[in-house]
Amino acid sequence: MPAFRPLPASEEAPATHVRSRTPTVFRAAAADWPAVQEWSFPRLAALDPGLPVRLVAGNRETDRTRFTTSTLGSYVSGLTREAAPDDIPVYLKEFDLLRKFPRLRADLRSRELFPPRTMRSSATWIGPAGARTGLHCDLLDNLAVQITGTKRFYLAHPEAVKRAGLESRKYDAWARLSLIGAEKLAAGQEDGEFFVADLEPGDVLHVPAYWWHEVVNLTPAVLLSGFFGPSTRVLSRWAWVQAREALHRAGLLGRDGCTCHAGAPGRRGPRH
Hints:
Strand content: 25-35%
Structural class: alpha+beta
Number of helices: 8
CATH topology: Jelly Rolls
CATH architecture: Sandwich
Helix content: 10-25%
CATH superfamily: Cupin
């Protein structure tokens, strides 16, 4: 097994430390948030039990993209049930919880975390034990807040996947993907920068843009990600992503598969 070093923790305020551009964990930085104390699975399930949700089946970053559907109430209520050994975890990923339920914003203290004069957007990951997001790097910095449960992050230096020649051609609008997982990538590399961090409720993790990371739920979990940056950087990234999205919708980009449409990695472009 490859040795991952524990990710250093910082006593600084996240808004100050993120300028260092190094991944860091801030223990209990959000422990007093009402969301951390009150967002139980029954409460989330009751927000709108009949709301249709699209779920990711398995690890779409490195495997075939597959989806299934459910309702918010049925899915969240079932997260704490014991799964059969051969069940493929299904994951509510990149869910815009705060847009669907704006009243939940009152349960956050986001201004305590982010540097001033930055643009940010949020997304929520809700899933069972064993749910996984494969090795990837994002185009923007991320402050991830663990709300419920425990989640493990494996992290690798921004050059680690490129040096190994293992960048995937699979298309994702806001991320780059790896052909293999973090543990396989780190195997046999003595001098690489590979880290691991287990997040408990109230912990906050800074993942700088382009740092590779793979994430697995150790228990049923809820995580809130805040992607952020100076307005000029965010807007330039957004314009670039929109141009690529237009090509993808036209079938001219992402011919080796994508994370937004179901199908085999080698299929010929998106179908809408």
